[in-house]
Amino acid sequence: MSDSIGETAESVVKATTSQFVQEKFDVIRVPYIKDAQQVEKILEEAKECGGIVCYTIVSPELREHIMQKAMELDVEVIDVLGPMLKAIEKTSGLLPKNQAGLIHALDHEYFKRVEAIEFAVKYDDGKNPLGLLKADVVLIGVSRTSKTPLSMYLAHKQLKVANVPLVPEITPPEELFKVPPHKIVGLLIDPFKLNEIRSERLKTMGLSDGANYADVRRISEELEYAKAIMRRVHCKIINVSNRAIEETAGIILDYIQKNRDRRI
Fold it and tell me: Which own/partner contact pairs does 165-174 have at CB distance under 8 Å and 24+ positions apart?
């Protein structure tokens, strides 16, 4: 029995009973134990059928009640969490939260983060415009405005992020214009700063920094085009020129939270 879903206790029982291959055991999981009455009923049933009760209960009061009632009924009980909680408390001097289901809350957070990261990879750099309508945030901007690293950073905050590069010669996907404006964030940058970034990028690729990609006039043209698209979709605009990824992400997170608060 458990004050959460009971997976931990069930795993312990199954691992133990697997050592007794000559016998088949019935394992009954009773989750979400909340009070002494539930405990007493289960112990009485165990007494009737000659069962053993294995439990993961975080409440010290309930654990104590289980022990007392089990002694009265002469029922064998195994406390899975209690000894470990006491050992850590004694050794570390820390007090446990005694809150049921925390491991599953952590698991839930973990899987939400993984899902968001997979989303960011799948819908990075305009790969699949269908993702724009599923995203929590859509980042738009010219090349080298940190769209991809920002997408991954925000994904670690459990946000599903898609991003779209803005290039004068390529019309943005029609799905972009169907995304609600409050979900789109435009990224702008100083043209000379972008020139430096792109020049360094070309050097790492073994190419001349005189290529059109790093030309200031070309960059200015791209940025004007990007501004026009941003005005058209009525999105929030952030200048990322002298900002770290974390700082830009913080602005986006605050913006998203304020929009959520307005809709509550």
Answer: 165/125, 165/126, 165/140, 165/141, 166/140, 166/141, 166/142, 166/222, 166/225, 166/226, 166/229, 167/142, 167/143, 167/222, 167/225, 168/221, 168/222, 168/225, 172/140, 172/229, 173/126, 173/129, 173/132, 174/129
Token pair listed for 213: 């990609």
Q: Is the pLDDT of residue 97 over 70?
A: yes
147-155 and 245-263 helices cross at what angle (nearest 10)?
60
Question: Which tens digit of pLDDT belongs to each residue from 107-149?
Answer: 677 788 989 999 999 999 998 999 999 999 999 999 999 999 9
Signed CA dihedral, 186, 192, 193, 195: sign only: positive
Joined together, the tokens standing for residue 140 give 């738009």
Phi, psi of 187 (to 5 degrees): -110, 120
What is the pTM assigned to this prediction?
0.64
The Cα–Cα gap between 15 and 175 comes to 52
Q: Which two tokens stand for residue 4?
A: 């959460």
